[in-house]
Every structure is written in C-alpha cells, then in structure tokens.
Amino acid sequence: MLEVGGLLGLIGLILWVWALVKIVQSRASTGSKVFWIVLILVLPIVGFLIWLFFGPRG
Fold first, then answer.
1. pLDDT tens digits for range 3-54
2. Could you write out the DSSP letters of every residue in 2-53?
C-alpha cells in the first residue's frame, strides 16, 4: 500500500506529465510552449497552477 506522501507525489507526477503533454499538443507558438515548459520544470507546483489558470487554451 502506498503512503499518503507517496500517493500525493504520484498524483503530482501524473498532473505534471499531463500538463507537459497538453502544452506540447497546444497550438501555441514555440516560444510560448518553451516558456510554459521551463516554468513548470523550474517551479513544479506553482508553475502548474499558473499554467492551469493562465496557460494557452485548446
């Protein structure tokens, strides 16, 4: 059985990978994609939340 910390870490990893896939698949410009990917890599939790609310749509 997973620990609570392990489970939260797993959920965080899944959300992080999902965000990266969505960024790469978006129709945003290459520069915009690079910006969002770097932001999520440097600031994983905060960057994910910023992308979730302000990132490119569609």
1. 667 888 888 889 999 999 999 999 999 999 999 999 999 988 889 899 989 9
2. --HHHHHHHHHHHHHHHHHHHHHHS-S-HHHHHHHHHHHHHSHHHHHHHHHH
Tell me which residue has tokens 């890599």.
Answer: 41
Read off the amino acid at residue 43.
Answer: L
Do the beta carbons of residue 32 and residue 38 sit within 8 Å?
Answer: no
Compute the Cα dihedral for 5, 51, 17, 32 and give only its sign.
negative
Give me the residue label for tokens 């960024």: 23
